[in-house]
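no rush on this but wanted to send it before i forget. theres a chain ive been looking at and ive put its sequence and its fold in token form underneath. please have a look and point out which stretches look like helix strand or loop to you. thanks a lot i owe you, the record is right below:
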Amino acid sequence: MKSRLAIAAAAVSISLALAGCSGASSAGSPPSGSGPSGSLEVQTGLAVDSKLMATLKSVTAGFEKANPNVTINLVPSPGSTYESNMKVRLASGNIPDIWWTHGWSRDRYSKFLMPLQKESWAKDFNPALDAAMKDSNGAFYAMPIDTDIAGLIYNKDVLAKAGYKASDIKTWDDFTKAAEAMKKLNGVSPIYVAGTSSVGNVADWIAPGAFSASDLKKMSAGTFLSTNYKKVLDLVATWTKDGLFNPDYSSGTSDSMAKALAQGQTGFEFSQNAAANNALQYNPDAKLGYMPVPSLNGGPSYLIGGEMNAYGISKTTKNPSAAKAFLAYLALPTNETKLAASAGSAPGLTNAKAELGVLQSSYDTFVLKEKSPLVPYFDRVYLPNGSWDTMVTSTDAVVTNQSTSAAATQQVASTFQTLYGQGK
């Protein structure tokens, strides 16, 4: 694992540095020819009020103006049911023309999607995404809007008032002490989680540091290591006991997460960087950043990454030319730059420019300067397909005191054993 992490970190540093240094070239023009036509349903996977959704709408309007014979129907996410809705639609054959693949373009959706490595923009595919998105033949199945680099999102003012700075958080003990100091601040919930819509991230962020390289090999081979996973939920149980989560946990939403972060009502959030960008819509002057995630095993802190916002085209679409033209339009450097910036991440294509705004200093510090290791999302690599829902419900049960960490771990273990036999 150490060598894999080193390679991944180097790849990310090199490819993202190139993305950050390269200026976005001219937008150019849509693909030439007689012009595409038809109507496309695009399942965006995005909250209706998110910054990325607003940018996608704006870019789509430009596409429709340039391609008057094409109508794009951007469908917002139904929330936490997006994944289950997509499973139903794929099983029934009622498949959108284009959909958000939420990290699963290769491992879950590739049999339903067109390969895209021969598209005109494919030469600029960020190599940092190779391990997550390309198969053994070099094929990939979605156009990456951004290169996902996540850590612990934090409010700099709240952290400072608690007497800490990002460089002080090296271990989970450091994190917990900082959170306890935040609890003493008036009106501050140290850790804000929006119920079942985001609690899975808490376990997903902590888990990579709870396993050694040999442990992860065993997990990949089908052996669930309960002792290691219980450490993850033990930490969550400690935070629950200490009252470090927000009191409105059960009714929390992505919108309330953004507001709490923006208004200095929380110190930490386990989320992709879009949470910071959404927060800026409520307070453009909020001082926000992200920091590496501490390791439970005493190893180096790490960032989490891979595929995040990416769109694939159904093999069964009735309008493949229009669908390919739309993705090609999204991939134009100026459009890709805008979309990635609104997601709060580096671009998914190397000829676009990294414009991270309030998060630029975090990117410069932890990605370019310190070269923090980049590890994949735990559930996508080390848990069988279909485990996410159990990861969510088991972590939720610990946060809400409905289950012990031992019982919740057994719940995850049972799901692992059931699903592993069905194939990762």
About this structure: The chain has two domains: 23-145+308-352, 150-302+380-420. The CA atoms of residues 396 and 402 lie 8 Å apart. The longest strand covers residues 146-155. Residues 1-32 have pLDDT under 50 and may be disordered.
